Amino acid sequence: MTIRRRRTVSTELAALAMGVSEATIRKWASRGKITRYGRKQRAEYDLDELLTLRERGAQLSAGGQQAPGL
């Protein structure tokens, strides 16, 4: 069994990866759309989780539907 090591990125890099503002990343985390990791003063987000969310949003958009909250 392979244990996957979490790759986390800062709020700034998460926003760049998703093409949204840092405020949107924080809002998604507070609404439970993405998981927040890190310490109290330094939020971090799982890069693989973000990329999966982005891919799912692209698939929904390609099908003529809008991704909820994206």
Tell me about this structure.
The structure is a single chain. The chain has a domain at 12-59. It has 3 helices and 3 strands, in the order βααββα. β2 (36-39) and β3 form a beta hairpin. It has a 3-stranded antiparallel beta sheet with strand order 1-3-2. It is an alpha+beta fold. The model has no long low-confidence stretch (mean pLDDT 86). This is Transcriptional regulator. It comes from Streptomyces microflavus.
Give the quaternary arrangement of the chains: single chain
- Overall strand count: 3
Element order, helices and strands? EHHEEH
Biggest sheet overview: 3 strands, antiparallel
Portion of residues in helices? 40-55%
Strand content: 15-25%
Decide which structural class fits the backbone. Answer: alpha+beta
Overall mean pLDDT score? 86
Low-confidence stretches: none
Summed up, the helix count is: 3
Measured between the Cα atoms of the first and last residue, the distance is 34 Å
Main β-sheet, spatial strand arrangement: 1-3-2
InterPro entries: DNA-bd_dom_put_sf
Protein name: Transcriptional regulator
SSE blueprint and pairings:
Layout: E1 8-10, H1 11-18, H2 22-30, E2 36-39, E3 42-46, H3 47-62
Antiparallel strand pairs: 1-3, 2-3
Give me a quick take on this structure:
The protein is α+β, with helices and mostly antiparallel strands. The protein is built from 3 helices and 3 strands. It has helices spanning 11-18, 22-30, 47-62; strands at residues 8-10, 36-39, 42-46.
